[in-house]
Input
Amino acid sequence: MTDAPAPDPNDVAPAVAELETIVSLSKRRGFVFPSSEIYGGINAVWDYGPLGVELKNNVKRAWWRAMVQERDDIVGLDAGILMHPQVWRTSGHVAEFSDPMVECETDHKRFRVDELPGAEDLGPAELLDPGIVARLGLRCPVDGGPLSAPRQFNLMLKTYLGPVEEEAAIVYLRPETAQGIYVNFKNVLATSRKKLPFGIAQIGKAFRNEISPGNFVFRMREFEQMEMQYFVRPEAASAIFEEWLPRRRAWYERYGVTPSRLRFREHRPDELAHYAKKAIDVEYRFPFGWKELEGIHNRGDFDLGNHARASGENLQYFDPATEEHFIPWIVETSAGGDRAPFTFLIDAYREEEVRGEKRVSLALHPDLAPYKVAVLPLLKKRPEIVDLCHKIKADLQRHTMAVYDDTAAIGKLYRRQDEIGTPWCVTVDVDSLEDGAVTVRDRDSMAQERIPLEGVTRLILDRLDAARAEAG
Ligand code: GAP
Output
């Protein structure tokens, strides 16, 4: 008898089989719209609608709470998107931040070489090999036309600062938020009086002229990052790097991502970014495969060392205990301000049959849900019921996101709230006018309970607190 092969931990089904399910829900319910849609859209830029902006802000707040608010060793920063152009020469981005690209000779479309069928597993040297297209017989995936030899394509977007469009006025839109932190290291150290190890966190826009953007908000040309740079003694960097791995993975799990759909993947030496000594991605099983959700990097003294040399500033840290001066090493956690909400949205998606009908719900963590509570009238023709609803909703709105809806029958109103992830619905009916009680319905269990209406706000806030404590 032979043993059954051990299950492959990578063989995990995505939460949603087709990406289109999420794209269409996002459009239909107002999470994400194509940018400038009335003009036909602009490739790789997406706009967040009324529900999307709430979800995204909630994700950013949850990250800030875990990374800044609840930690004594990390402080925040909000640096400019535009920086001195020398920053990008010093950081290596002008010389190194590029992808090998080929161009179709008939339709002139450009592709990243590693995204062409048959070239996915090539190493960096092979991706730039002038003979690789002929050797592998690579053709344009759109029209089958012949492809050019690979060449490097810098991913930074440029603009001009000031009124004259000349070479000297070129500035870059930052391709990572991290550099804003490095150039402020001295300022933050002097004003916050932090001792090593300590971190600086920042959330903000970044821009990359991606050759092959796509998969909805997964790879965009304008996107957000949630980055934290942790400054450490050089000899502590390896151990501290290892400590951040489970901590960052656990953050996604606490906010509802299914653990089996997360994994770590270490970069091979030949695929490391120019600044990294070691890099491990937290990957998620998206509907289009296992892909990077967040990167954790040991950047050594690459950044502070280069900035110190190029600027002439002393970016050393003085350790009073050992009386040493040295350039700290950096352990970076770099999460996506779009990929994280996208992941939470995908992983929360549920379809089930309830009494012969399809029920779609988003089992979002209450802290991430756009609306925490909807207040619904059972009979909108009774003004006393509608008035009471508005009173309850107004009281809730002082504390949290609450919404009133009377545009359909109650069953449909519940389904609408389920589909946008609202954890609780409060329903006011005719009896409420007599007994002063309302029904609170839970999104996930669909259980209903009757409670005195004076207790509604307290109950919702207590449940929110309890959910947050579980995630803490
Ligand atoms: N500072 C390090 C850095 O930028 P990265 O792995 O290139 O590292 C970090 O990017 C994270 O930023 C990624 O894990 C992803 O979540 C997000 N990201 C990067 N490029 C993106 C893009 N084109 N669209 C959306 N998110 C992106």
